[in-house]
Amino acid sequence: MLVLAAMLFAVVMVFIDQTIVSIAAPSIIEKLGLSSSGMQWVVNVYLLALAGFFALGGRLADVFGNRRVAVAGMLVFVVSSALCGSAPTGEFAQSWLVIFRATQGLGAALLFPAALAVVIAVFPVDRRGRAVALFFVLAGALTAVGPLLGGWLTAWSWRAIFWVNVPVAMVALVLTALARIPDARRPERLDVPGTVLVAAGVGLNVMGFQQASAWGWSSPATWACIVGGFVVLAVFCLYELRTHEPLVKLRVFCDRAFTADLVVLFFSVLAFVPVLFFASVYAQISLSASPDQAAFYLLYFFVGFGLAALWGGRILDKRGARPALRLGTALGCVGYTLWAGKLTDLSAHDQWPYACLAGAGIGLMFSPASTDAVNRAIGASYGEVTGITQTVRNYAAAVGMAVFGTVLTHVTTSRVAQTLTARGLPGGEAQGRARAIAEAITGHPDDHQPTGHGPTATAMRSAIQAIRMDFAKANQWVFYGMAVALGVAFLCTVLHPGTRVTGQVAKARENEER
Question: I need a labelling partner for 214 at 20 to 30 A (CA). Which of 35, 197, 316, 370 fits?
Answer without folding.
Answer: 197
